[in-house]
Structure formats: structure tokens, C-alpha cells
Amino acid sequence: MLAGSIVHDEVERTLKTLRYGRNADQERSRENVIKNFKLSWSQSKNKDWKESPKWKTNLFEHYYDQKPSDEDLIRIRDLMVNSMDGFFASDSYRFIQTMSDSQWLAIEDLDSFEVHGAKLWVKLDFAIRHGERVYIYDWKTGKVVKENEVQLAVYAIYAKQKWDIDLKRIRLFDVYLNQQIPIKVKPTDRLIRSANEFIQTSIDSMKELLTDEDNNKTEIDLFPVVSEDRESYPCTYCSFQTVCYD
């Protein structure tokens, strides 16, 4: 999670460097991701977040005393560096370099839109307009996962509302930086329908657990602690273990 966030931040910084007419430096980006990871790791390890929880990193591994091995840390370093190398080598980056900043639509901008009577928040990694088309990019540092297509479909629904563009003119890309694999996803009627159904189901599931829907309130008793068969649940990676365990 931390590695992915750091890579996203560095890709954003790199693109904004281009936007302001300066040259991006690949070696500097490699150094930046390592430096920022070490800084965040130190903040978490030293519990700096207790003084400034909004601005300092608090990692799951330190909070729950799960120390990664040296080999794990090396893999994380290599993942970040390889992902930045993959970004600089990508067709997506070369394409973006040919565009003027007036064509940019979004870069890590938090926004919202309405679906099924609910407000959904989105944060597109990058979007650009080229001619009559809109290109949306989602940078990935993990493995190729087909389910990520639904996320892009949600972005397409947002783009249709935000920029009043026909779905047929939207180009979606999952760019897997570490493997240097760009996957083009077509916003077909079937995929958009699947995304809408996913959103509706998620909203309905959450509302079912509310005791006062108008005021968005619930009761803790509706969320029982798992008492048996913990092997069937992802308890090891749950961020709310302190609520469940003595």
C-alpha cells in the first residue's frame, strides 16, 4: 500500500514537472521513491504519527508489530524503482509528453458524482482530452487483476457525467508499471452495466446495516466479532484488530 502510494505521488510529480515546462529526470524519480519510503518508514517506526496523525505515516506493520524481513524490504524497493522505470518507458508517458497542458483534465484530483442517489468519491490518476476522445489512465504497481476493469468502468461513468462525453469516445487504460503492461479496457455496455450493478449492490449492502438511514447511523451489535473459524476471515491483515482483540 505504501509503495503504491509513493509511486503514484512520484508519477504525479513527474507529470506536473512536464506540465510546467521542465525536464523530468528518471534517476531523480528512482531516488525519490526510495527516499520517501525511508522517510515514511521512519515516521511510522518512531511513532511520529502520534503527534501529527494527519501528516505522518502510521504503518500496519509497526502498529501491529509485524516486522517484515530484509528480503521483503528489498522487494518493496525493487518494486518501486522498477515501477518508475516502467512509467518512463511506457507508451502512455510518451503519448502524454506530446500533449499540451490545456488538454489535461485530471491528475489525482478528488471529485464526486451522483449514482443511484448516492455521492461517490473518485480520484483519477490521470485523464487527458485528445481530439474528441478522453483518455483515462490508472497506474498500477501490483499484479494484473481483471477485476480492476470495474474500477475503470466507474471512472468512465464519472467521465460521462463530468465532461459530457459519449462512452464510445472514452479510452481506459490500466497501466501495470512494474511489469510494463498496458491494458486497454473498452467501456462496453456489459462492463458499464456490471459497474452500475456493483455500485448499487454496495450501496444497498451498506444501507441494510443502518438503523437510521436519514442520519447515517448504525449500532455496533450489527457488526459482531468473528468468534469462530478465524481462518476463513482476513483477520491477519485487518486494520481494526484492536476493536476485536483484548
Produce the secondary structure layout.
Layout: H1 2-19, H2 26-45, H3 60-63, H4 70-89, H5 91-97, E1 104-106, E2 109-115, E3 118-124, E4 126-130, E5 133-140, H6 148-163, E6 170-176, E7 181-185, H7 189-208, H8 241-244
Parallel strand pairs: 5-6
Antiparallel strand pairs: 1-4, 2-3, 4-5, 6-7
Features:
Lambda Exonuclease, Chain A; 17% strand; 246 residues; 8 helices; two-stranded antiparallel sheet; alpha+beta
Reported by name, the CATH topology of the largest domain is: Lambda Exonuclease, Chain A
**Strand order across the largest sheet:** 1-4-5-6-7
**Roughly what percent helix?**
40-55%
Question: What number of domains?
Answer: 2
Q: How much is the radius of gyration in Å?
A: 21 Å
**Strand coverage percent:** 15-25%
For the sheet with most strands, the description reads: 5 strands, mixed
CATH architecture of the largest domain: Alpha-Beta Complex
Q: Count of helices?
A: 8
Which structural class best describes the helix and strand composition?
Answer: alpha+beta
Please trace the helix and strand order, writing H or E for each element.
Answer: HHHHHEEEEEHEEHH
Q: How many E-type strands?
A: 7
Which descriptor suits the 3D outline? globular
Low-confidence stretches: none
Distance between the termini: 27 Å
CATH class of the largest domain: Alpha Beta
The mean pLDDT is 92
